[in-house]
């Protein structure tokens, strides 16, 4: 019946027959099925009633490809709703028949009458630096520029504008409806809504009602609503959700929701919520109150709702804005879903705070037509936009030269790439593909973040472009060391830098033994900072596992190099598909319950998908079935079970013989090893039988554990040895200095050199000929560790007077030795003593002494050169004494602040030629010039970042 509907968009003389159209659609569907599943089996059975997901296994990206091929093959322009609405081949046929021709459809620019004016006429908006909550940010915006356009939401090619005043008015309407419905203060409200202006109203309305919003992703098709909500029952129960706000269709399953979620009291449609009058009295949340719960997975047996307060959210937003120099002149175009932290916090709430124009479109619009995203960037002159890696790859692979004709991306200054693994190949392909359209090589910006930090954690310098690290594959796999190799070396591993920690944040890498790993050694990435979550909502066990000695475990593996973070993989085997987390354990448990599958013999994992640059989901299941028909039926049942569980089918289902799925000798699933066997083809060859297999498994699992224990023991032993060697050395120096104070420096110099040799730390020095020990001078050095004194004393044979903070005078042993060698102690926090300190330094120089000063004043465990105080350089100018910059490298890694045991890491020092003040010039200007010249030398040799941003 469907095939008999005429096509009104074509002239009667060109109208193909219904049978021809039907065959065209089936031909395209069958060809894609063969490509995806690498089999001809079942192709003949594909007909109009075949379902796209359960029977054919087409996920969302496969649907995108299918729609594009149908448009090209049939010469039509399918509406965006086809992507989510079509469930069977018949639905696709009906969409093709009723669609306009490609020639008749406008596939390019958005329908908006004054797009250019939105960017050009934006007022200069200040930043609400004193706002403590999101609602205060909103109030501030409404007071300052109520009629300025805050957002444009694009749907079906039309943009709907929203001013700050309209945003607040809509939020107050939603708040009134929620409070009138009996919502208690402090309750949680789940938002299961598509991208729309109403989403923005409801999110803020929940806050104004004194409640906590819980964003969750909405169903893609109405027919899946009940199943979709059923999968969210764990999240809704964990959050203790009182009210669910969703689309109108959800009302029909309210009774099912209430049966599964004891706390759920009301289900409200968006239409009901936005009909009333705005409330006049709203709640004013405190800065430390919960602003939202961000669940890290769409479906999991152990829901993890990240608790984020208003203060934490604003701290993260401010840090990200500072890192990218965000201003009100920026325009952020986003297709990212508003239930995802990158789209909600990074794109929308960040735009709200900084006064940027926020342009949003539904994710389905981008997936159906990637060109709409790029056209919106052009039409709104966007400066900021973001996507997971697969989105950039989709644009590269799916857009033709004809599609891109006239495209102008020259306004785009930062293209954030995050939320999933970043592919260096994608970065390069996208930059090459869109360079002719104004996309500069410096625009692509890989970033890293996680919900536990708000959203952002590390950003590279703005407009620097990608930094790719090429490392030795075998050294990384065997030793976990990121050893640099030439880019052209075959089989080199390539990782993209995700940048440096945001201002106020720290990142470290912890090795398997629990110690902090040195640079270029892989380990678990940990962080701390002002937006670090206190834990997971109503999940004490997971919250306890999150923290380690004051640091939060990201769950990712990586390494640091020159302060830049490189992510290499995940600690756990979470599969990330298009930014969404899928937990293999759930799939394995559910598939293992099916008849014909060996229970406990299922492995689910993600592997790199070459066609979409994202992960594909693979399910490997053991079965004793051998008949082709039985295997086909079992494969179909597994596909349906996975779709029911996670909402998407796996890309590949592999049925294997018993004992093929790899396990440890104790019977624990070796998921990573099974993935490797799948990738190298050995899994398809079947299991190795006999005792040899068990022996190999036992050796494979025992060797890494033994290596970790041995390395941990070696590190601990070395650290203890260092202190054992240092103690008698320190006592000897203290005693000899007390008896012969005139030779204190000489004793310390020889002892420090002996100690460094005893520690077996390589110590290289360059530029010793730049220092004249007979002439008074001021050595200025970067400060990285308490060990700086040891290495500098070993370096300088002639006496120098240390200028040290007063606290060290009270330190046992060290304080006594410093006093013996004439150290000048300075109170760091007493400004009134600064004049006296300068006078003492000038007097010491006048008596022929040389000084050693750490112009940073102190050090922390965070890598990087801190700002220099001017005092040393003012003394140099006033006394006519040269400054000799000394750059230390590596001492921070030997013993960081807060670290108890030393590590054996090479240390080097470089001395600059003396810097003299120019006679007859302004004293202050000369002090600044000397300071800057010294910094330039030190930052060029210390191997750490310049934290002043210079």
Descriptive report:
The protein is globular and about 105 Å long. The strands form 9 sheets. Strands 2-1-10-9-11-12-13 form a 7-stranded mixed β-sheet, sandwiched between helices. Strands 28-34-33-29-32-30-31 form a 7-stranded mixed β-sheet, with helices on both faces. With 950 residues, the chain is of the alpha/beta class.
Fill in the keyword field for this structure.
950 residues, alpha/beta, Non-ribosomal Peptide Synthetase Peptidyl Carrier Protein, Chain A, Rossmann fold, Luciferase, domain 3, 7-stranded mixed β-sheet, 34 strands, globular, disordered N terminus
What is the secondary structure topology, with strand pairs?
Layout lengths: L17 H20 L22 H15 L7 H4 L3 H10 L16 H6 L13 H11 L4 E7 L2 E6 H17 L7 E5 L4 H12 L3 E4 L9 H7 L1 H7 L1 E6 L7 H7 L5 E4 H4 L16 E6 L9 E5 H15 L6 E4 L6 H14 L2 E4 L2 H6 L1 H10 L4 E4 L1 H10 L15 E4 L6 H11 L9 E3 L11 E2 L8 E4 L1 H7 L13 E4 L3 E2 L4 E5 L12 E6 L11 H7 E2 L2 E11 L2 E7 L4 E3 L2 E3 L1 H9 L9 E8 L4 E9 L5 H19 L5 E5 L14 H10 L10 H49 L4 H16 L3 E4 L11 E4 L6 H8 L5 E5 L8 H7 L3 E3 L7 H13 L4 E3 L17 H9 L3 E7 L1 H4 L12 E5 L11 H19 L9
Parallel strand pairs: 1-10, 3-4, 3-5, 5-6, 9-10, 9-11, 11-12, 12-13, 26-27, 28-34, 29-32, 29-33, 30-31, 30-32
Antiparallel strand pairs: 1-2, 7-8, 14-17, 15-16, 18-19, 19-21, 20-21, 21-22, 23-24, 25-26, 33-34
Helix pairs in contact: 1-2, 1-4, 6-7, 7-8, 13-14, 17-18, 21-22, 24-25, 24-27, 25-26, 28-29, 29-31
